[in-house]
Input
Amino acid sequence: MQAETAGARQSSTPAGILEMRGIRKEFDGRVVLDDVDLDLAAGEKLALIGPSGSGKTTVLRMAIGLTKPDAGLIRIEDKYLWHEQRDGRLVPAGEKHARVARRPVGMVFQQFNLFPHFTALENVREPMVQVLRLSRDEAGSRAMELLRKVGLSEHCHKRPGQLSGGQQQRVAIARSLGLEPKIMLFDEVTSALDPELVGEVLRVLRDLAHATDMAMLLVTHEMNFAADIADRVLMFDAGKIVESGPPSQVLVTPRMPRTRQFLRAVNDR
Amino acid sequence: MGAVAPYVPFLLGGVQVTLQITFAAIALAVPVAFILAFARMSPFRAMRWAGGFVIETFRGSSAVVQLFWAFYVLPLFGINLSPVAAGILVLGLNEGSYFSEVVRASLRSISAGQREATVALHLPRFFAFRSVILPQALPVMIPPFGNALVLMLKFSALVSLVTIQDLSFRAGLIATSLGTSGTVYGLVLCIYFALALMLAGAVMVLERRVNRWAGRDDTARSGFFTRRQSSVPPWAFGR
Output
């Protein structure tokens, strides 16, 4: 395990599963991301921390094509998200190309975004039928297995409205896992939960992080959780990455005053 | 009242014509509304512009004049429509233009999060629309659809102006031949009212059914008497 993570930290090699170069994004004239580079190695768990509005969530949304950068390159495995290779040169490509390129990526949202008219089982099963082209029986049994893993098999016929926030978020995690992503994005997945429900979701994520070789990109305000599961932590501020390193360094002995100030504010909560 | 009694079967024949026109026109209006709404939400500017042009043309000009155009002017260009076809066409396009804004607003009312989830799950776009967005938007459309249907019923009286023998047209004939209009128009008013009530009732039934389809009905949600296996209509899951 130790050797693996050490290897994973050399993430700027071309073998990285996700690469972002020179990413820039403005919303209404406000710079949200300013020339950001980011590398994620296969299997690496990367935590993004920083104050709200610093651009962490935008990075996640860009990694799955929900937001398009104004400038810069995004590569997922061997495909560029918004560009394609033609005659050895990179040329801009459209939505259709992006749909294929982003396929290895999955995302879990802060607000769960379960389909309210589907049962828990249907929420997990239907994307598998539609995307993996599995039979409904096959998808159904895989979906049940996933729901069992997140501890919800007895709730499989309930709709999201009948489940607690923590249960809904666990269904949403199972739903994303069903598509067998190579990169998982978690966008503040516990921020919309009642404090007492945070633990059950973090437990599922922790088990997942330790058991899987999926790469993970997590935006989180749970510093202990980040310290536990992340191989590397990126500190964002004002659209830039201000500090990067293993959690033992960034979260315990940060070099940058901005990181120190942020961590102090979080710990004083 | 007694003087009108012999004409009642004749009036009821008019009820049939009125209902036929109403249903045919609404059957045209609904697909028109969806098409115009899609055009207005299209990523292509030309489509948005074309949709907006059609909507504003039909909303922004007199339906009576449109009807006269369809019936009296189009033949000059070699397009001959029967009175019924002209009536259905004009009513359907008019109501379709109005209703397209309801369709658009209902589709928009589904949260961005739902749409983003369909993207993040790589769902095919058609499935995302038919199985995720539409079942949530449809229940929102039904009450305004009831409005549209009742309006269409009343609106349909316009076709009497192009010689269609609907309820209003026949009322006019009877009033002329009897020389008094009070009783017959009173009666016709009541008939329209009764028809409108029936349509409103039918829409309430439709609303319940659509809500059940879309997994919204409350008995199922409570899980008190029923334990539903699925909340979604079978058609939503087809490939």
About this structure: Residues 2-104+183-267 of chain A form a domain with the Rossmann fold fold (CATH 3.40.50.300). Residues 112 and 172 of chain A are 6 Å apart (CA to CA). The first helix of chain A runs from residue 2 to 9.
